[in-house]
C-alpha cells in the first residue's frame, strides 16, 4: 500500500508551502515528521474520524505520507481540526498541510481501494467514524459528551487521570465520575463534538496501564453536563468558583441542556507514553483487511503506575472482633496479605503488608469508606515500608499482635498474571461463591449463611458450572462481614468455600 507512482514526491514537491504557492484546499493532505517505521493504521487512524480515505501513500524513508480523502469537505474538516489540535503519534508531533497534488496515483489501486473501503466500513460500524458524518466528516447532532467505563480496574482511575488522557484530543470542559453496576464510570464533556469523536476513535479499547484499566467509550445521550461541585468525583474546568461539597448524584447532569462551546485550548501531557502500532477499531475483522494491515498491536497508553508502599494502615476496626482475622480476610480479596500487626496502644488500628504496592493501592481504593461491624473503616497508605516482626525480647502481647502469613498456601495472586486479577470488584451486596462440592445444595448454602446471622435475599447456581453460585445479601456491609466469616469455610472433605464480591446482580 505504501508504493508510490508520484515521481515528483521528493520531500518538497507536492507540498503546499506558503513561499511557493497559496495553500489551496485539496482532498490530498501531506503529513510530515512521521515516526520511524510508521504503520498504515496509525496514519489512517488520524483521518478516519473525519471521513473515508480513498488512497494512502507512506514514504517511510522520508518520514512522510500522503492521504487522499473521499471529499474535499472531509479534508478541510480534518485540516481545521488539526490546526487547533495538532496530532501526535507515539508522543511525536505530526504536521499536516494541504498538498499541491489534486489526487494520488498508487500501484495496485484496486486492491488498495478494497482494503480502504473495508477499513472505513468497519470503522463506521464500530463507531470510529460518526454515523452522521456521511463519510464526509460532517457531524450531524453528535454529542460532545462521552460515557466511559473502565474495566479490569487494577489501579484506581482518578478524575485527574481521565483529564490527563483525554485532554490530548481537545479541550475537556467537565468530568463526572461515579460507580454504577459495580463498574467505575465517567461522563466527560469536550468543547466540541469532533474532539469527542477523535478521542473515542483513538482510545476505545485501550489500556490506561499495562494490561489493565481498559477504556470502553461510547457517546452519551446528554448534550451537556451540569457540574455543581469541584471535588474528586466531579469537576467543571471552566469554573474555579464552584464549592467542594458532596456530589448530589441526582443533580449531576441535566438532559436537554444546550452546549456552550468555549474556545478550545489544546493540552498535551508529555508523560503519556504511546507505544508503536494502532488498530483502527476494536470491531475490525481480521478477514476484512490484508495481513499487512493487521500485524501491529493496539496502542497502549502505558502510563506509569503510582509509586507507593505496600503497607496499609486500616483504622476504625471493631476491637471486639478478632483483628488479625477480619483484617486479613477482608484485604486479601484484593491481594496477598504478608503480615498483619494490630497496634499495641490502638487496637482498632492495624498495619497490613501486601505483596506489592499495586495490591495495596487496589485494596485502599476499594475498601476505604466501607462499613464493617457498624464502623466506617479507613484504609490509607502507611509511612512504614514494611511490617516488622517482633524481636526476640518482645513481650508476649506484642508477639500475639503480629502475624506472619507469608508462607500461607491460600494466597490468590501468587502466580504472575493470575486470572484472579480479572475478577476483582468493589464490595457489593452480591457474593460470588465458588469451589462448591456437588454434594452441597442450595438449601445447604442458604442455611450456612443464615446460621451466621446473614439475610439471604436471592440465590442462583451458575447454569453451566454448578461449582459456582451468586448469593445476594441484605446490604453491602452484610456481604463484607459474610466474606470475612465464611471465606475458606470447610464444606466437604478437603473443599473450602471461596467467597468474593461479584459485579453481577440476581
TrEMBL record:
Pfam families listed in its UniProt record: RRM_10, RRM_5, RRM_8
Keyword set includes Mitochondrion: no
Gene Ontology MF terms: RNA binding
GO cellular component, as recorded: nucleus
Keywords linked to the UniProt accession: Phosphoprotein, Repeat, RNA-binding
InterPro entries in alphabetical order: HnRNP-L/PTB (IPR006536), HNRNPL_RRM (IPR055204), Nucleotide-bd_a/b_plait_sf (IPR012677), PTBP1-like_RRM2 (IPR021790), RBD_domain_sf (IPR035979), RRM_dom (IPR000504)
GO annotation terms (biological process): mRNA processing
Domain RRM intervals: 27-111, 146-222, 310-384, 429-504
Protein name: Polypyrimidine tract binding protein 3
Species whose genome carries this gene: Takifugu rubripes
Amino acid at each position: 500500500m505504501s508504493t508510490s507512482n508520484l515521481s515528483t514526491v521528493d520531500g518538497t514537491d507536492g507540498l503546499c508551502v506558503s513561499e511557493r504557492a497559496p495553500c489551496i484546499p485539496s482532498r490530498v493532505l501531506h503529513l510530515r515528521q512521521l515516526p520511524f517505521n510508521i504503520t498504515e493504521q496509525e496514519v489512517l487512524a488520524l483521518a478516519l474520524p473525519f471521513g473515508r480515505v480513498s488512497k494512502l501513500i507512506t514514504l517511510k524513508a522520508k518520514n512522510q505520507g500522503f492521504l487522499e480523502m473521499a471529499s474535499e469537505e472531509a479534508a478541510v474538516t480534518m485540516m481545521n481540526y488539526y490546526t487547533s489540535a495538532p496530532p501526535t503519534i507515539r508522543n511525536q508531533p505530526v504536521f499536516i498541510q494541504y498538498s499541491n497534488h489534486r489526487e494520488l496515483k498508487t500501484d495496485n489501486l484496486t486492491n488498495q481501494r478494497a482494503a480502504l473501503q473495508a477499513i472505513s466500513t468497519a470503522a463506521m460500524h464500530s463507531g470510529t467514524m460518526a454515523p452522521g458524518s456521511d463519510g464526509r466528516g460532517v457531524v450531524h447532532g453528535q454529542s460532545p459528551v462521552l460515557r466511559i467505563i473502565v474495566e479490569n480496574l487494577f489501579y484506581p482511575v482518578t478524575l485527574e487521570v481521565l483529564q490527563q488522557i483525554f485532554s490530548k484530543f481537545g479541550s475537556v470542559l467537565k468530568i463526572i465520575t461515579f460507580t454504577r453496576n459495580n463498574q467505575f464510570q465517567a461522563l466527560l464533556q469536550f468543547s466540541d463534538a469532533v474532539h469527542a469523536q477523535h478521542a473515542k476513535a483513538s482510545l476505545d479499547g485501550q489500556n490506561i496501564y499495562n494490561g489493565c484499566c481498559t477504556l470502553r467509550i461510547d457517546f452519551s445521550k446528554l448534550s451537556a453536563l451540569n457540574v455543581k461541585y469541584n471535588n474528586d468525583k466531579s469537576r467543571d474546568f471552566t469554573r474555579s468558583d464552584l464549592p467542594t461539597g458532596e456530589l448530589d448524584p441526582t443533580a449531576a447532569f441535566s438532559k436537554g441542556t444546550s452546549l456552550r462551546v468555549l474556545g478550545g485550548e489544546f493540552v498535551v501531557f508529555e508523560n503519556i507514553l504511546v507505544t508503536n502500532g494502532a488498530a483502527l477499531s476494536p470491531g475490525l475483522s481480521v478477514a476484512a483487511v490484508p495481513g499487512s494491515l493487521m500485524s501491529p498491536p493496539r496502542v497502549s497508553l502505558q502510563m506509569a503506575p503510582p509509586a507507593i508502599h505496600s503497607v496499609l494502615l486500616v483504622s476504625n476496626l471493631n476491637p471486639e472482633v478478632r483483628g488479625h482475622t477480619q483484617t486479613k480476610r477482608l484485604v486479601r480479596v484484593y491481594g496477598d496479605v504478608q503480615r498483619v500487626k494490630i497496634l499495641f496502644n490502638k487496637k482498632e488500628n492495624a498495619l497490613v503488608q501486601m505483596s506489592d504496592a499495586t495490591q495495596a493501592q487496589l485494596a485502599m481504593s476499594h475498601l476505604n469508606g466501607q462499613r464493617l461491624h457498624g464502623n466506617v473503616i479507613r484504609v490509607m497508605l502507611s509511612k512504614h515500608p514494611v511490617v516488622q516482626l517482633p524481636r526476640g525480647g518482645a513481650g508476649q502481647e506484642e508477639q500475639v499482635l503480629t502475624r506472619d502469613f507469608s508462607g500461607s498456601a491460600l494466597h490468590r495472586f501468587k502466580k504472575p498474571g493470575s486470572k484472579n486479577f480479572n475478577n476483582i470488584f468493589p464490595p457489593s451486596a452480591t457474593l460470588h461463591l465458588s469451589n462448591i462440592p456437588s454434594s452441597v445444595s442450595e438449601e445447604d448454602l442458604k442455611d450456612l449463611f443464615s446460621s451466621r446471622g446473614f439475610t439471604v435475599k436471592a440465590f442462583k447456581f451458575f447454569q453451566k458450572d454448578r461449582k459456582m453460585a451468586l448469593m445476594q445479601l441484605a446490604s453491602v456491609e452484610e456481604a463484607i462481614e459474610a466474606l470475612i466469616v465464611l471465606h475458606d469455610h470447610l464444606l466437604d472433605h478437603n473443599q473450602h468455600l471461596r467467597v468474593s464480591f461479584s459485579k453481577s446482580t440476581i
